[in-house]
Amino acid sequence: MIRIAIVGDIGSGKSHIAKLFGYPIFNADLEVAKIYNTNKKCFKSLKKELPKYFSSLPIKKEEIIKAIADGETNLKKIIKIVHPEIRKKLNIFLKNNKKEEVVILDIPLLLENKLNQKGDIIIFIQSKKIEITKRLKKRSNFNLDLLNKFKKIQFLQSYKKKKSQFIIKNNFTNKSAKTSIRKIIKRIL
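The chain above was modelled as a monomer; its predicted structure follows.
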């Protein structure tokens, strides 16, 4: 199985491009949302660690935002609790898809959390900062303070780019992205 990992800046279009590949995708953001909705063990750990913020399951987005906004250490505590659950879900996904020729890993903190493996093909999604900002501001849950807190825990984009075997320049048109994807798939298969 070939593991293709998609990396890039917040709002660069990683998830959209991951879908365009047409292979099974592990989307860490969706898995985190599921954990917040249903995982009792995770909820109990968060409530114990940050009792002021979490009241009941499902965990509300506002509670998470408030906890992160109130302190950088809170984000680290949340990651420390949620990350092991994501790793378990990733392992289940890989086991369930072991017969697939290719799988796509859409994991924002892939490199930071050492979830990549030696044979992974890493693709960096490069987008213009002005386009990213414009698109992020359109999101209903856009919060500049939160965005900056998340960026602080990520590796520099230049480092991610250096670690990547391929770069897709995302100008936010499907035609351009699909052309880049076809060229990459042709080279790796």
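The radius of gyration is 17 Å.
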